[in-house]
Amino acid sequence: GENVEQHPSTLSVQEGDSAVIKCTYSDSASNYFPWYKQELGKGPQLIIDIRSNVGEKKDQRIAVTLNKTAKHFSLHITETQPEDSAVYFCAASIGDYKLSFGAGTTVTVRA
Amino acid sequence: DADVTQTPRNRITKTGKRIMLECSQTKGHDRMYWYRQDPGLGLRLIYYSFDVKDINKGEISDGYSVSRQAQAKFSLSLESAIPNQTALYFCATSDPQGTYGYTFGSGTRLTVV
């Protein structure tokens, strides 16, 4: 099955700086790559996703890039704010179901 | 009301007991999932269902069973709970087109003592 590795496991950034989280996947047939944000006591929530026919996607301060050749994708958060503090998960799948998740990155934004 | 509701939110049970975690959704989606979250391991798929008559095992189904009572309801059972099933359990639903990704419930924190 699909294996998704995520790094780093923890990330501490100064407010206003950028945060980058990287993931690699094993199955070259995977074509859907979402990112989820989990706040304390809540379930994960989709924040952005990208499909294999696109190399980059942006939504305000969040962007995701995909390198199919290297089988890795990254989440970029610019101008970080305290409310960005959370656990972030990457995931991959063939089609839009049976997501395989990375282990998660705990992001802390320091004021 | 939440789109995906899980009950109970927290549960402590004893080794060997049978326990059921319930999930209901108001999204009208056919696809439902049960995931388990452990620190450092992310979310791992236990079971998934694409409609009432379709149940499939995920990567860690041993020790678990499920029931899809209706389009909106998907229950997870631990027939004989053991301590290493202590974890945070999430139910999720998705639309067939995958347009909106997964919608997760708030989770059930299960402790087996």
Question: Which structural category fits the helices and strands of chain A?
Answer: mainly beta
Proportion in β-strands of chain B: over 45%
The amount of beta strand of chain A, in percent, is over 45%
The helix fraction of chain B, in percent, is: under 10%
Distance between the termini of chain B: 32 Å
Order of helices and strands of chain A: EEEEEEEEEEE
Q: How large, in whole angstroms, is the Cα Rg of chain A?
A: 13 Å
| Total of DSSP H or I helical runs spanning 4+ residues of chain B | 0
Assembly type of the chains comes to: heterodimer
- Mind telling me the C-alpha Rg of chain B? 13 Å
Largest interface, with counts of residues having CB < 8 Å to the other chain, equals:
A-B, 25 and 25 residues
The overall average pLDDT of chain B, rounded, is 93
What is the terminal-to-terminal distance of chain A?
41 Å
Quick one: biggest sheet of chain A?
6 strands, mixed
DSSP, total strands of chain B: 11
Helix content percent band of chain A: under 10%
Q: What gross morphology of chain B would you assign?
A: globular
Q: Quickly give the structural class of chain B.
A: mainly beta
Please, how many helices of chain A? 0
- Report the biggest beta sheet of chain B as strand number plus sense, adding barrel if it closes: 7 strands, mixed
**Low-confidence segments of chain B:** none
Describe the fold and architecture:
The complex is a heterodimer of chains A (111) and B (113). With 111 residues, chain A is mainly beta. Helices cover 0% and strands 55% of the residues of chain A. Chain A has no helices and eleven strands. In chain A, strands 2, 4, 5, 9, 10 and 11 form a six-stranded mixed sheet that branches. In chain A, 35% of the residues are buried. With 113 residues, chain B is mostly beta strands. Chain B is 0% helix and 58% strand. Chain B contains no helices and eleven strands. In chain B, the strands form two sheets. In chain B, strands 2, 4, 5, 6, 9, 10 and 11 form a seven-stranded mixed sheet that branches. Chain B has a four-stranded antiparallel sheet with strand order 1-3-8-7, with no helix packed on it. Chain B is globular. At the A-B interface, strand 4, strand 5 and strand 10 of A face strand 5 and strand 9 of B.
